[in-house]
Design a protein that fits this description.
Blueprint lengths: L2 H27 L1 H16 L6 H19 L6 H24 L1 H7 L4 H19 L3 H11 L1 H10 L3 H5 L1 H16 L1 H6 L1 H8 L7 E2 L2 E2 L8 H22 L2 H16 L3 H18 L4 H21 L1 H15 L7 H15 L13 H5 L4 H4 L21 H8 L1 H22 L6 H20 L9 H18 L14
Antiparallel strand pairs: 1-2
Helix pairs in contact: 1-2, 1-10, 1-12, 2-3, 2-10, 3-4, 4-8, 5-8, 5-24, 6-22, 8-24, 10-13, 10-14, 13-14, 13-15, 13-23, 13-24, 15-23, 18-21, 21-22, 22-23, 22-24, 23-24
Amino acid sequence: MSLATTRESLPFLSLLVLLCATVGALTAVSPIVAGILLVALAGTLLVVRLDRPLVAVFLIFLVLQDPFRFMAGGDDTQIGYFVKRADEALLYVVALWTLLTSRRTHLALRAEGIRWAILACFGGILASSVVARVAVVPAAMDLVLFAKPFLIFAVGCSIDPSEFASPRRLRTIVSLMASVILFALVFMLLPHLHDAYLGSFRVADTRLGLRSAQGFFDGPGPYSWFCATTFAVAYAAYLAFEKRAYALVSLVAAVFTVLSWRRKSIGGILAMILLAVLLRSNRDGHSRRRAVATIAIVAILGITLLAPLVSSLWQYTVKEYGGDPNSVARFALHQTSVLIARDHFPFGAGLASFGSHASSVYYSETYQQYGLSTIWGLNPEYPAFITDTFWPMVLGEGGVVTLIPYALFVFLLLRRFWVTARQTDLAPADRFLAFAGLFILVGSLLESTSSPIYNSTMQSALALVVPGIAWSCFASLGSAPSGRPNAT
């Protein structure tokens, strides 16, 4: 990046930081004005420039949903509860419209058998539900939520890859994502504003005696995954276009991911860097081993320098995830899902029976049958931790006949992105899509080991929209990597 380019970017970055500070202050003082500024920023810079503005409005709403919910009075008010549930209604409207009108989505879903993997997922969980004779109303509720990640993937497939990967549009998107991350500075430097923003809805998250970075989201979990996704997009753009501004944004995203103190997101970023080193190293085994050794040395040095912090995080992890499975909710969910799959092989316990939102609303008998109803967070009085995982829900409710096609769905995406990213003759935009799709998908898989990332609309959109865009670019009817479906 030339000195002239750096000078041109400084006023924009200064304005971006000033806008974040202004919006952060107004969030506590005048929420209405803050909300208007947020919508105006996102709307004017992005919506009017895309060929599918309804999709852009939907994605922007997901990012701003938590501020709107807090401004409306939280979940205890009718408006706040409506805002909280509006994301799902909007998703089904946008997804239905996409499936009916987007030829690009139709082509992408027919490529490489991915539609059969998706249909097999639905077939497996429906078969498990029929065998288990589950109640219709809870099952219908759960089925709608089960479809969420596939619908979001379909929405991502409808976005024109050239729209997303063009340098001008990409700069706008990365700048917007960076502004959301930098917003956390306001609340970190002025914690009283953060407390005023949260009000009585929740208490700010602290770990190791430090306040976690979480921006205007309702917790550090969604914020850290937003940072990790921003890192994936910016780092992929840097590798493809070799612009230092993208490297700067990826560094900022990585720093704030660490400041959120979320280990899965930090691990996701480390996995993305490892993938990049492996992909960019020469194909001979010596170079690849040297690249892995370099990462190992850097990791060892980093752990040595930050030993007290690493030790504290390790002790916190052991305390949260280790120990007796009969006392730790997430561990119990993982272990019990295997037992359910064994007892119902090859099926599962059916929809609304285990690990899902519907199984907590209509408290499932499965928790009592397997002795989980006495565990804090899984008991009928406080079932808040029932939805803290994802894959135990897939295995427990759908069994092996659902888990296998779900794994195939993920494998098809990973294989396509990996094979494409290894090609040496790719255009920069195609290389960016291959890297971004691979990074985000791998990061989301790590996040999903102990997080319901694919069940949360916003986090699922961050995890699957970009892979959907990349898939529609590379896999449509076996087209070459540079090919793009012409239809919308």
